[in-house]
Design a protein that fits this description.
There is one protein chain. This protein is of the alpha/beta class. The protein is built from 11 helices and 11 strands. The longest helix is centred in the middle third of the chain and has 20 residues.
């Protein structure tokens, strides 16, 4: 995704499997019976196993909010509640270097106060990061050697912080992973992802690769080569279009069994060879949400659906996007 620089109160919405532990119970949201993840088994590695912390804390495919916490976390979390959403997906780059038990207690208390279940956490820093085709391959994810170690450390520390909040999913963009498996950088990235996934496994969590900069085939290959049962996919359907990588409907045929979270936004194919495509109001771009949700539902996807915005002023569009998504989901699940 073209990473959002949210101002206080700007939010996005999340589709992802919920992991809220005691916080979910305290907020009065009761896990459904038979909450284990059910997905078909295919060739290659098995679908990611449910984490120790993961359980069905919100209704399947409940629409939630992607939020970036900053120095005003209460106002941001309150906004999720005001918009009538039960869950959120936490983007924590602004908290890198500040994790503590006291901060976890503060955030956890606010989530309980506003009855919001956190489904996953994500970081992509530390910088530099560019969300384009010229500088992106040199700066984004675990691909660049110059920042790889620092970002692995950030993901591990984020995993430890998420455990304090009983959040069972850690997500990031892994970057422009080489299509050629013989490229030496490809093997380096596989080893880096494996190390982070193993750390998350030690905390009872899934580690999710967010779609965008690599083709679904490359994502599938990486999952096979990393060979860790807790490695899955955070599907951002629009990213696949914005970065010119795949039709998201077809992508589900390739990586659908590994999808454990979902970011909802919309957009169009890139026409400027240096920049990703333009985003659009959900339901007006090229993402075929009915087809994507139908295929995910058939695969047993029961996580959340998260609306994501890239500009603060787009918060005004969230109610209409929520209504659109909930209408599509109701038809798919009927």
């Amino acid at each position: 995704m073209r990473r959002r620089q949210f101002l206080m109160g700007a939010v996005g919405a999340t589709v992802g499997t919920m992991a809220a532990g005691a916080m979910g119970r305290a907020s009065g949201i009761v896990p459904e019976a038979g909450g284990a993840w059910i997905m078909p088994r295919g060739t290659g590695p098995e679908s990611p196993a449910p984490s120790e912390l993961e359980h069905r804390a919100v209704a399947p495919m409940a629409v939630g909010l992607f939020i970036q916490l900053d120095n005003e976390p209460e106002a941001i979390i309150a906004r999720v509640h005001e918009l009538g959403m039960s869950n959120c997906f936490l983007f924590l780059d602004s908290y890198l270097g500040s994790y503590s038990k006291a901060l976890a207690q503060q955030v956890g208390d606010l989530l309980e106060k506003y009855r919001v279940v956190p489904t996953a956490v994500e970081v992509v820093g530390p910088p530099p990061i560019a969300w384009d085709f010229l500088h992106g391959p040199l700066t984004l994810g675990l691909v660049p050697r110059a920042t790889r170690t620092a970002r692995m450390d950030a993901l591990k520390r984020t995993s430890d912080f998420a455990k304090l909040l009983d959040i069972g999913q850690v997500q990031t963009h892994c970057g422009f992973i080489p299509e050629d498996p013989a490229d030496p950088v490809y093997e380096e990235v596989v080893l880096a992802i494996r190390e982070v996934a193993q750390h998350c496994a030690g905390n009872g969590q899934l580690f999710l690769m967010e779609t965008g900069q690599e083709t679904p085939t490359t994502t599938s290959r990486v999952i096979h080569d990393v060979d860790q049962p807790n490695l899955g996919v955070g599907l951002d359907a629009a990213n696949l279009i914005l970065f010119g990588k795949a039709n998201p409907v077809d992508a589900v045929d390739i990586i659908g069994p590994y999808v454990r979270s979902f970011h909802a936004k919309d957009g169009r194919w890139p026409t400027d060879p240096m920049q990703p495509g333009a985003q659009a109001l959900i339901g007006t771009g090229l993402v075929d949400f009915p087809a994507v949700f139908t295929r995910l539902h058939r695969l047993g996807y029961a996580g959340a659906v998260t609306i994501e915005i890239s500009k603060p002023q787009q918060i005004a569009e969230v109610p209409a996007e929520k209504q659109y998504l909930e209408g599509v989901i109701a038809r798919v699940r009927s």
